[in-house]
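[job 0417] fold request received: NADH-quinone oxidoreductase subunit D
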Amino acid sequence: MAETGTAQTGTAAAFDGASAATHTTVGVGGAAESTDMVLNIGPQHPSTHGVLRLRLVLDGERISEAEPIVGYMHRGAEKLFEVRDYRQIVVLANRHDWLSAFANELGVVLAVERMLGMEVPERAVWLRTLLAELNRVLNHLMFLGSYPLELGGLTPIFYAFTERESLQRVMEEVSGGRMHYMFNRVGGLKDELPAGWTGRARRAVAEVRAGLPRISELVLGNEVFRARTRGVGVLRPEVARAYGVTGPIARASGVDFDLRRDEPYLAYGELSETLRVVTRTAGDCLARFEVLLEQTSNSLDLADACLDRLAELPPGPVNQRLPKVLKAPEGATYAWTENPLGVNGYYLVSKGEKTPHRLKLRSASFNNIQALRELLPGTLVADMVAILGSFFFVVGDIDK
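[job 0417] inference complete; emitting structure tokens
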């Protein structure tokens, strides 16, 4: 949809002695080329992810201004948190980034456990770490397949979904859900693992690891993909920091920050030798894809390390016994995690009731997408889809 103003090319006056007539010519052709065009991409458009709207001001084929307009999927999640108890919140929290459901649940229960001063059984800590990394791989595989699709490459998404299905089977077996796992609980996890599950999980990890080179060769070895992404959409590190951009997008611009290493939680402090924070300095679309691909490989290594550690642990509980009515003590806390798309934080304020007084969600995609305001001006309209796709966001994670 384009919004253009009426352009006047001039006024001609003809005098024939006794009378004068004024003739106005309205130009809609060549004169319009000098007029900026306002172009709305979205909220429902083949060139956008979901229902994000971009308001672009164009100067010919180049973007001169860009404004991301969000809120079309807003459901008031933070207010819904306030009228549900701490057990019920989990079912809402895992839905804003539907590709990172386990990680979303984790942030809520970590915040409540911190308020309660609760220690989680060691077995639950390692299981949570394992499942968080498997969820990270599932998230990344979706974007590794869908990003080439947005640039015209159809085949990679079939390979990506083949690898995803290997992990989906074991995640569904352990939790009962394919997208919304609902497996975290305040104090640990819902249930013990099914018999023989760790062996099946290890085989699934091996299958995905064997399939990653196929995706890498198919995409990174394609000269058309490289031409569309190298040097396109460069995000400067100072802009990333100013807008609070985190996760793979920030690390592709050289922002070397990862909560798993810099403020370890769960079992990440004991996985420092396996954990590798992948960075690039180019900051372009190609760098963002490369970071995502390498980070996926490292998450598989972390999953194997967790499985090794679980094999060494003696049998034990995976959760704490809780009172029938769970109330957090009066106070406030902030818990943040390194979600697949970046930093996800929960600011919890309690007045000693069974529901939170306030629960503020800081989602990764919301901050990340704001950087488009700085990034898109000066780029070609033809490159907009490549840039937008490389930001790896989920619209529900923006709108909340």
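[job 0417] notes: The chain has one domain: 69-395. The domain at 69-395 is CATH 1.10.645.10 (Cytochrome-c3 Hydrogenase; chain B).
[job 0417] exit 0
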